[in-house]
Amino acid sequence: MRLIEEYSLWIGNRGDLRDMRRIRLAGIGAIIDLAVNEEPFSIARETALCRFPLVDGPGNASWLLRSAAMTVAELLRGRVPTLVMCGAGMSRAPSIAAAAIALRTGRDPQQCLIEVTRDAPADVSPSLWNDVVGAIQTAG
Q1: 2 neighbors 11 (Cβ within 8 angstroms)
Q2: Whole-model pTM above 0.85?
Q3: pLDDT tens for residues 25-61?
Q4: How far apart are the C-alpha atoms of 116 and 134, rounded to whole Å?
Q5: By the 8 A CB rule, do 66 and 139 touch?
Q6: What are phi and psi of 39, to 5 degrees?
Q7: Phi, psi (5° rounding) for residue 118?
Q8: Taking a C-beta distance cutoff of 8 angstroms, is the pair 67, 52 a contact?
Q9: N or C: which end of the chain has fewer CB within 10 A?
């Protein structure tokens, strides 16, 4: 898990769920699961869980991409410490996190993606990113 401190936003992968103690100690109140290729999981009762099953590439419904980004943006607005995760934490999670920051701040999505991926390995699918940007441009 890596923290984007300004937003109390963590980006992670499926393996991070093996250490729920670390998640609790970080004060994470919501987990956003984006991995369509993984089985749903159980978490502590006091943690909110939202699942948006996204594929890492083209073919996601715009409403699903927009809903994921808007949900994270609303959690950011409410200052809820949030973990956004997918299978490896390198494409879907940073894409939705960046889109949420763009929605929340009104900044350019591409600049937000650069910020989110600056200090960590990333392999964002160009087709997924294009679809995410298109989906949030219709949000309003």
Answers
A1: yes
A2: yes
A3: 999 999 999 987 766 666 666 788 899 999 999 999 9
A4: 19
A5: yes
A6: -70, 145
A7: -55, -50
A8: yes
A9: C
Top CATH class, 2-137 = alpha beta
DSSP 8-state secondary structure symbol assigned to residue 135: H
- Residue 136 near residue 66, CB atoms below 8 Å: yes
> Measured between alpha carbons, how far is 133 from 128 in angstroms, rounded to an integer?
9
CA distance 75 to 86: 18
Angle at 62 between CA 58 and CA 67, to 5 degrees: 120
- Chain centre to alpha carbon of residue 121: 15
Tally: H helices and E strands in the chain: 5, 5
Q: What are the φ and ψ backbone dihedral angles of 3, each rounded to 5 degrees?
A: -100, 135
- For the chain, the domains span 2-137
